[in-house]
Records
---
Amino acid sequence: MSETVKKFLYVNRRAPYGTIYAQEALEVVLIGAAFDQDVSMAFLDDGVFQLTKGQDTKGIGLKNFSPTFRALGDYEVTKLYVERESLEERGLSLDDLQDIQYEDEDDDWAEKPSIRLISRAEMADVMADQDVVLSF
Amino acid sequence: MSETVKKFLYVNRRAPYGTIYAQEALEVVLIGAAFDQDVSMAFLDDGVFQLTKGQDTKGIGLKNFSPTFRALGDYEVTKLYVERESLEERGLSLDDLQDIQYEDEDDDWAEKPSIRLISRAEMADVMADQDVVLSF
Amino acid sequence: MATLHTVNKSPFQAGALSSCLAHIKEGDTVLMIEDGIYGALTGTGFSDKVQASGAKICVLGPDVSARGIDTAHILASVETVDYDGFVDLAAASARVQAWL
Amino acid sequence: MATLHTVNKSPFQAGALSSCLAHIKEGDTVLMIEDGIYGALTGTGFSDKVQASGAKICVLGPDVSARGIDTAHILASVETVDYDGFVDLAAASARVQAWL
Amino acid sequence: MKFGIVVNEGPYTHQASDTAYNFAKSALSKGHEIARVFFYHDGVNVGTRLSIPPQDDRQIQEQWSALAKDHGVDLVICIAAAQRRGLLDENEATRQGKDANNIAEGFRISGLGQLIEMGIQCDRTITFGD
Amino acid sequence: MKFGIVVNEGPYTHQASDTAYNFAKSALSKGHEIARVFFYHDGVNVGTRLSIPPQDDRQIQEQWSALAKDHGVDLVICIAAAQRRGLLDENEATRQGKDANNIAEGFRISGLGQLIEMGIQCDRTITFGD
């Protein structure tokens, strides 16, 4: 649709389910994937809660959208930056998050983790390296 | 409409204008005044910002509803509890708030201040003394 | 009779839990619902405050499960209730105050 | 080129300002708008942090006036801009990041 | 026991109306009465019949309408809040010269007095908001 | 310079749409272009023609409709977000079997691709939300 390739960052700072922002952010990412841009997602502050494994929403009646994160690789969304300090402040570690993988086409389709645990300072670097920052 | 007299507390914890809660809370208080209940308002946390004097909304295009606070006395809403710690944490003092008065019918219509500056512990007492607590 | 306080916001994102805990009276109950359940996590800057609150602290179980928070991460002193338990708590208190 | 960061929430109510200040780079600008302008107050628990941020800090004047905050209560190091100034800041930055 | 419920946030955007609904269902199943649900602020948007949620998601407005039908729960939308946000019944639409209305079955539009009255008449008033 | 604007919150409830409008007006008066305004989340509710705000308050929907008319600003409402929240145009209403629609003049309903396209084509994308 356009020859320009821009760096898009989707910033997720909110918990899932209490509000719809996390879910509707994911809908943007899926649609955006068709545009062949350079896409990254940032998870910091309460946004890290979006990635927990074992989400079961039957009791509250809302739709569980967390499996969608595992499908992102198929849409070539492979850079999910998670801020270490945000996780730690919430008493969580990488073990509490879903195992999200993608197949690396440049490396014989090897399965690689999409989640990249980075420091707060590195997150600032990622943010400063973008063309378009969409916040949810 | 009813012979029951209940103690109603309207709890204001949010700043004005950024969201509509403060303004729509005031609309409830004005309507509620017709029901002859025992009404109090609590201002704590960012709610204390609602009462600042000199609000001028021309630049943002929203309606300035702050003069309504001065009319509350005419509706016999005369107990505006303001939490001292909330004011202090925000670098404000009573001098920064509007001068809101009511005429005391039990004291020869003497003008008295509606704002009652109380401590956090006293605010907890006020809250625990209510029948209905409406939060905005 | 005591008050049931509901808190529906993450303590990391909003001041509701802190303000609630600063205004509770002896015998009160605090029920964490929706994104408020993160206030019941172990190992956070709020854990000690919640445990030392003196109030009975509850979380709404369906909101904990929805968010994939393992019970191992929930403070042992916190009681888990379902919607029926929420109703019982509301009925057993003199008033319900929502910390929005 | 640098980033324009907008913060529209009160620092007393939300973590947006703190998180923003923890992620800015040299040369960036932080513009406080809407309820975010309370971050520019003197004499609060955030005042020192804002002054020591290293970034250029601005407030949207119309939002300050609307909220009846006397300029005496605004940190001296903070620059006041109007909507035209907001547009200029956005145009002069490589990107705009909203801390919602 | 007689409960009154306040819903302050819009459907899907915030979990408030879902939690309120689950609370109401539980209260009814335990033999309590839900005397009224008052929709205020963005809560008024719960009462639109024009929403088309994804089929695999819960149908919030229909859930409430069914509650009104099955249990006679009085669903009241605040008129002042509704006018600002564009939620109208046929009467209001006609009176205000609007060419359409969007209120759903089981909801009615009325004044803020209904909120105060609910607080007076109910044993417990409980608020679900943001 | 070419600006794209995202509005994420509903009218009156949150100041976001007001700030976005004031920003857009300033940008236009300074000779910039507002290529598109994309309404997402509750922002879709800005585009209802059924709202009846108090007469002494600003008329948010009319302000935006006038901006579209006077400056050719493209006002796009996200279809997925709009369906959840009950904001429909005539086409959608017919297609979905709804008996009314509520979109205001100057707004159009389209897909999320319009948001990405805006980000690609504009020099700056700026978000107003909660």
Note: Residues 1 and 89 of chain D are 12 Å apart (CA to CA).
---
Amino acid sequence: MAGRKRKYPQKLLVELYRNLYMIRVFETRCIKLYRQGLIRGYFHPYLGEEAIAVGVCAALRPKDRIASTHRGHGHCIARGADIKLMAAEIMGRETGYCGGRGGSMHIADMSLGNLGANGIVGANMPLALGSALGSWVRGTNEVTVAFTSDGGVMNGTFCETLNLAGALGVPLIVVIENNQYAVSTTVEETTRETELYKRGIGLGVESHRIDGNNVLEVYDYAKDAHKKCVQGKGPVLLEAVTYRHGGHHVNDPGLYMPKDRLEDYKKKDPCLLGRKFLAEIGAVTAQKIDEIERKVEQQMEEAVEYAVNSPQPSVEEFLDDVRCYS
Amino acid sequence: MAGRKRKYPQKLLVELYRNLYMIRVFETRCIKLYRQGLIRGYFHPYLGEEAIAVGVCAALRPKDRIASTHRGHGHCIARGADIKLMAAEIMGRETGYCGGRGGSMHIADMSLGNLGANGIVGANMPLALGSALGSWVRGTNEVTVAFTSDGGVMNGTFCETLNLAGALGVPLIVVIENNQYAVSTTVEETTRETELYKRGIGLGVESHRIDGNNVLEVYDYAKDAHKKCVQGKGPVLLEAVTYRHGGHHVNDPGLYMPKDRLEDYKKKDPCLLGRKFLAEIGAVTAQKIDEIERKVEQQMEEAVEYAVNSPQPSVEEFLDDVRCYS
Amino acid sequence: MSETAREHPAVQKASSGNPRSIMYREALREALLEEMRRDASVFLLGEGIARRGGSYKVTEGLLNEFGPKRVIDTPLAEATFTGAGVGAALTGMRPVVEILFIDFSMLILDQIANQAAKLQFMTNKQCSVPMVLRTQGGAGNGLAAQHSQSLEAIFYHIPGLHLAMPATPYDAKGLMKSAIRSDFPVVFIEHKLLYMTEGEVPEEEYLIPFGEASIKRPGNDLTLVAWSNMLPRSLKAAESLAEEGIDIEVVDPRTLVPLDKKTIVDSVRKTQHLVIVQEAVRRGGVASDIASYVHEEAFDYLDAPIEIVAGLNTPIPYNLSLEKACIPQEVDIIEAVRRALARTV
Amino acid sequence: MSETAREHPAVQKASSGNPRSIMYREALREALLEEMRRDASVFLLGEGIARRGGSYKVTEGLLNEFGPKRVIDTPLAEATFTGAGVGAALTGMRPVVEILFIDFSMLILDQIANQAAKLQFMTNKQCSVPMVLRTQGGAGNGLAAQHSQSLEAIFYHIPGLHLAMPATPYDAKGLMKSAIRSDFPVVFIEHKLLYMTEGEVPEEEYLIPFGEASIKRPGNDLTLVAWSNMLPRSLKAAESLAEEGIDIEVVDPRTLVPLDKKTIVDSVRKTQHLVIVQEAVRRGGVASDIASYVHEEAFDYLDAPIEIVAGLNTPIPYNLSLEKACIPQEVDIIEAVRRALARTV
Ligand SMILES: Cc1ncc(C[n+]2csc(CCOP(=O)(O)OP(=O)(O)O)c2C)c(N)n1
Ligand SMILES: Cc1ncc(C[n+]2csc(CCOP(=O)(O)OP(=O)(O)O)c2C)c(N)n1
Ligand SMILES: [Mg+2]
Ligand SMILES: [Mg+2]
């Protein structure tokens, strides 16, 4: 892709940066809320990986779909979710995306084609395949993106999904978010071939390894992959290499992550890069960018206020609701 | 491997051919018994694929182990099983390998390191991995062979197993018996990359595609793979290409198999080839070979007689036996 | 159970024009065919279902009519093609996924129990999962431990699934049509010994709602609850006992989830005796659960302990006489009935 | 149940030197440590168990002592590393495989139900599968539908498995040691809310045999059967009721397979009333099965229907008050006891 000339309209660059920054702010603010006891359960921040969700989702059309992971807030926001409803959900409120039933690991917004986060690593792959398969059966051409992870790749569903997608030629993009760790276990410990995209090649599927911190590189590859899928030339596999800015979840200090490695990755922080692209390619002034950032921060505060002031779900209604399962 | 000079002692060639022919005779005779109503349940003949089991097992030491498939008679015989006990088992007799509890799909002989056939396609892979893992943990160097199939490769356990074996470096040889069909479904229909060994490459594992009808080629590759495993350089993946001589099981006429294709493969019938090697490389006379064949046929008749005259299992003893599961 | 009515249109009893007898497998095929014609979002996924028409011929000829996009032969990747069914269902399709043997469903439980069953709930009803998992269970052919199990209890225990186990061609067809139209994920368990059995099935379209038991034989002395292949066996036992003047009511729940407790409890209140027959192993089976409801709701009506006739707690052996010893036979049912009635005195 | 004795050496009651109180998770760790020291064929497989010492610190420090060949961090390939445990067990090792959450065990059921549970049987006892599957279940932390289930009923229904669900540090240690020495595949279910609870555990080595219930509180008026995290809750309920003069016997089966029916039935014959408390969903749970045995064997002793207090038939919600509404609470147990006793009059 080096040397390729793609035009990036200012509008796109603004959108990309706004989303990068929104994820950054959302996660940072929610971690604070977690520490204050307002959020419970598992919470896996997307900090440091923002460019992947943002770059990929920018390449999609409204009718396309995504299937997300346990680390799903970034995908959600990049797909256009309402952060009010997200915040309310992870605080377990009635007004949240899932009425407080789902929490962080299960946020979905079917109206935006976001089939939801998933608490079972690897399980979203078949779901995404099915979504793409439905398009293929109907002859419509919605493209589905399955986000997965270096850990998810180790699960049998990865090969099964990519293989079947390849056999049928369904419009599926699989994006590996290779942040180099499954909790504290490194990729090196769990496979002999650490370039994970090569598994796609073994299955005859077009596969690339890309810089997951560079939102424009991600966008470029996703755009191409999307085009191929629309043309019936799918699936495509993208391995986006990145690094977490912290531990596995909010309660993991990540002491096993070498400090210098983290420092290196922070130098190519996806938000920093995104801001740089906006300034240099988009020719947006620092002042304008600051304005964008303030706006995002303000939206976040509104979301927090909304969520904090939202009611708890009613136990009676809940009991009524679940009677259908008896 | 072309041009390689390996010496094949006459003794080895005799052993190989004896086993090839034994499988041929066993399956052919048992199909007859099936038609006569003496055998029930599923029966998947190994006819046409004999060279794989025979070539691989000839490369093993007594202390090595194998994990077999639903199409397991060939592996069993090649590993040195007593065909009397095999025949008795598939007739459901008390004297059979599993006391009539197992049948064709579950014959095992732990004393020979044969961990058994398996009715769940793909499920023997993790079992074989565990067997190799045990050797690795203990620091002994028994090698384990996992036989699998073109269908089995499609299951997630294939990639998971090969990947974990690779990560740890355990002494495991995976042998794909690619007979080009899963029942009536072709490999082409179910994957975009029909050269199945490439999946191993994607996982960083040494992988080869070989002629599954040529017992010497199979033996050569298995011998090399075995050596690597003993040296701690495993795992190794071998894809042995072959073709069934009939339908999927005894009741499948295999009408979907193109006649000319089958004819072509019958021209390189593993038994024919084995006989040729014995005559040409081993310098054994046609008369001697005929003698070997007669001996095998006689053993088979003895096995049938043994099985037919064996008692049915006692229901009372059975009921006593299974009380431990209550 | 009022949701049932919402999900499943009421029975449209066939105006029995000319009754005809067809096989269970043909009844299932008709159901698939009719629903696929009616609704383009219905499609089939499974091993050997297209070109080969299925191991039991249930999908025979469907490839010809509907083409390879609606009748799809899959690789042996059960977890993933099942999950693909779930994903397709989430996004507007009505897939019917076939797992050849219920034994292999052990490979797909994450997609069924953690995904299909829970997605509607976890998303607070943003979506539903209108898929059918067709599978086949039971012993009786010498297929041994990994091809003979009766595993309905596992699905029965997972909230969010519906569960049908028809015993007759009539029920098979009517329930399959309802299953395909249901917005719940439905586990639909056929029995390998039933495919070739025959029964009357009207030409006219009909549906059978979930959650409605069927009284297959009315009677007054004892209630016999049985489903799937234990139904014909129980009916035979009832006939044998009728010759001695014992008048048995045979109730087939047909769907285990939702379960028509009312019909069962009403019957027991009338007969005051209950025998439940299940092919699955005794420990932790559905029979125990049904017994627990009846015990609760008809405690004062029961004249004798509820008898459960069930499979032995063991894997199924290959040898046919051993296999037989593991599964309830007519004689076992008759003995249980006698035991239950003997206590009365 | 006589096999139990064969498998598990009789309890070696600790000569209570100096009683000390340790946590459930520490008790488990001690069991692993002792057995690994005693027997070089014992090794551990799981996610994050080596370097990180496990999510609940049960395997902390074991990597240091035993090295990376006996404490193995695996990739997220549950089906395969579990199956590798089965294969290793088949060939002379005694693996302890950890599945982080019992919810994820839905990924490994083929290896457990079709392989581990059946191999001894299918090979006519040519082999055994001496492996332990350690896993953890239950709700109570706002972990939502895919990290909160109680799924023991599924394992309970598969012949060939043993099943332990200890509630106290003492039982956890003694049962884990027996599990590791057992020649049956053992499913060992811990509870996430119990890891930090404390209890007395002797310094001296001891084993607890499978199939022996423990009467955690003797009493005369009613029998309460509860296991895992429902035990402390039931004991609390019993204490509350004791203040009103209601004298409850609390029985913890400790192992569900084999199940010590005798202790339960004897207790019910004495108290004539039974309440069973289970965290798992009501439908198809183990409680129903226990009820069915008691119903059979103590029919004439029961003065009132057996009460089952169980989880709601629903996936578990994230919100804490909704979660609480799904799981039996002390007050639910107390109410059930009152209902059961009220009928007597
Ligand atoms: C099937 C399954 N196994 C284990 C877990 C527990 N778990 C949650 S996240 C995680 C690590 C995942 O690492 P990776 O897949 O690389 O994703 P990342 O967290 O790095 O984004 C584990 C082991 C799970 N949720 N699902
Ligand atoms: C998990 C699983 N799925 C499906 C089956 C049913 N089945 C038995 S053999 C077979 C075809 C297997 O083909 P392949 O794996 O290529 O082996 P082959 O029969 O060609 O040796 C199928 C679908 C099974 N036994 N196990
Ligand atoms: Mg990762
Ligand atoms: Mg094949």
Note: The first helix of chain B runs from residue 10 to 35.
